[in-house]
Input
Amino acid sequence: VGFIVRRLAQLAVVLVLVTFFTAILTTMVPGGTVDAVAPFATAERKAEISHELHLDEPLPKRYVAWLSDFVRGDLGKYYDGPQTSHPVSDTVSNALPKSLQLMLFAQALSLLFAIPLGVLTAYRAGSLFDKAVNTASFGLLAIPNFVLGLVLAYWLGVKLDWFPVLYDRTLTGFGGTLQNLFLPAVSLAAAQIAVYMRLLRSDMIATLQEDYITMAKAKGMSPSRILWRHALRPSSLTLLTAAGLNVGALIGGAVVIEVIFGIPGMGLLISQAILGRQFVALQSLVAIIAVGYILVNVFVDVMYAVLDPRIRHARAA
Amino acid sequence: VSHPASSRAAWRRVIAVLVAAAFLATACGGSKSNSAQSSGSGASAGGGAEGKPVTGGSLVYGLEAETTGGFCPQEAQLAISGIMVARTIYDTLTAPDDKGDYKPYLAKSVTPNATYDSWTIVLRDGVTFHDGTALDATVVKNNLDGYRGTYPNRKPLLFKFVFENIADVSVSDPKTVVIKTKTPWPALPAYLFSSGRLGMAAQAQLDDTSTCSSKLIGTGPFKLKEWVQNDHLTAVKNAAYWQKDADGVQLPYLDQIEFRPIPEATQRLSALETGQIQAMHTDAPQIITKVREDRDAGKINEIESDKFTELGYWLLNSAKPPFDNQLARDAITLAFDREKFNTIQNNGIPTIASGPFAPGNVGNLDDSGFPKFSLAAAQAKVKEYEAATGQKLSFTIKTTTDSNTVAGAQLYQTMLKDAGIEVSLGQVEQSQLIGTAIGSDWQMLSWRNHPGGDPDTQYVWWHSGSLVNFGKIADPELDKLLDDGRKTIDPAQRKAIYENVNKLFAKKLYNVWEAYSMWTVASGTKVHGIFGPDLPDAGGKPWPSLATGHPVVGLWVEK
Output
């Protein structure tokens, strides 16, 4: 518990650093919110709008005001025009669950395929099967996710009509969600499968050289028992770390995939906030992603202890 | 040392957490189901046999973009997707017919005085907004004042410039509004349409200073039900709509229309092919090619139009070197192989532009005298320019980050290089493009503008002194033509004036024209009524233009 509390305390520090860095970056980007919402306005009018929307205040003051609002649950506003706006929280409440679903589905799919393939290729290292899987994994790594997305949409969506080519909100429930997210999740997961599989394979090969594995073999234990019960667990830590860190890559990849499959998720919101120079909204969105990213990695740290008793005992000590 | 039991339990815990999280996320994202939609399947091709309209049903329409700034009529920046929504919720006072003449629409009549500097607008009886309030002269006056920047609760941007020629708007009785203009202004009815952007909003929306962009209240054929940004905008039939078709059937025909922003054009078409949506629009040549194949195979309906359309062009900053020099403008125009450009960049689909006025518009000419491609003549002009200025002819083309637009600039760059012109490429984001054009730090921009209607609606883009004269054109001859065109009442004289504008552009080359945009609406074979019914009061056939969207009031779906 103490460990988790310490990590959550770190969360606050990271959150401030990430969002303040984002705020600094936004000052370096050409153009501003007023240029985007009021492009036809004269310079004087733009200055007026900027003042009316409190966008002309110095960065530290703006940042403190934003942070104060954010911790109280106010995510700020999207500015629609010279005076109209709508709350960021309205769009986030619709977008965040969809992005979470997509990310979890993509991760689950990646692990579902990567773990058996990693174990089996390690067990049969150097075999034709190992070489074939490795070659295929290079292929998956080489295909950009948006290309794969479009190809899958065409073949599995248009030609075979197995999955919707666009996010369909009328498909509800767990089954409907799986149907909706299958193509985008596969598009995102393909490259991750290759990465996870190769990481696990190399760790498993090292583990299989350990003395206790030799001992297990000498005792006549079956290969499947050795692989799945004795070798996989200590070989999983790198995979788990990569899976946690890859949440960032999934969020990045989701920007394009969400556009292609019409998923109104966080990636789409972030890209719109950047292109529309909605910097207040952008800070809140980045903060939400940062919080999620940190929480996932706290979860990964907790899982280390679950998977490896040595870490649990060391922490307890 | 192994611990089989604890290992198994550990993995079970991991899996259980992942599955629980997935369920939790699914539950959080629970969405409502909507009514069934008809999918487009059948055998008719082309535009589809129209037949007798059927009332009922719903339709999902794929738009090319979300209108992130919302739909507050006076302040919104509406591109084609936004205009589609605006024409669903709001009505305009006038609407164009198939010849481009503007007829009363929400207004019962729009009548000028003898000198065309005072216009009397009489409103229809019995028209109500979606909130039940009546359409009267006061709310129309407030809307018009909102557009021109004199209504306190609205802060318009572009329309403020557009309506600078209005001197006063007044209410003469509960159903009559009088507009007085600073000069005779025969084109005013065209401005009351403004490509479908000049919708009338209810007083409550007009006075809403914080959520005018999202709480839409019009008199249009459909009422806003729900707008979830980036996902869908659903509008349901306005049962109290004021318009009936020629057979006396209550409009609109559909019970519901849903718009879905699908920026990726390939996916938009895929969604149509699989029946997830029933209609879509596009001007992307590669997609139009595929749409034509599907149409020829009888899979979908398709309607194309470049009537009254906009055009793509290279916008020049004529206040800054090198394009403040006619020789430079001559050289880059002569070096532009438009046939080749159109074939490579646009699959040869759109028609090469002869001038700023598209087919159907007053001022359109088959041959305006715009120079034809000649590499030798371009090279000679480059030498002339260099001899006259002592400078090498070089400049930067700025485009948006859109890959197709960048590819077009690269192609033009190659052509210019052949003529000895050195060109750099730069990029600005879409949201910064207009701000860039208003400023002076640019030489050439890839641009698209001038959709059809009355040619006077182009006044603000070209007249010196206008903030949105992006090209900084300061040409007394052009100013005089535009001023004369604005005041002239006689149609024949107006035609001659705008043809002269066209010829002047071909001579002075303030812009380098590319092609007239071809817009396509593809739909399921059971979807009909894209251009809408005839205008009310026997006002004529509907406007055959797609460049600024189309009405949804006449859409219907076969059972």
Summary: The radius of gyration of chain B is 26 Å. The mean pLDDT of chain B is 90. DSSP finds 16 helices and 21 strands in chain B. Chain B touches chain A through 74 residues (CB under 8 Å).
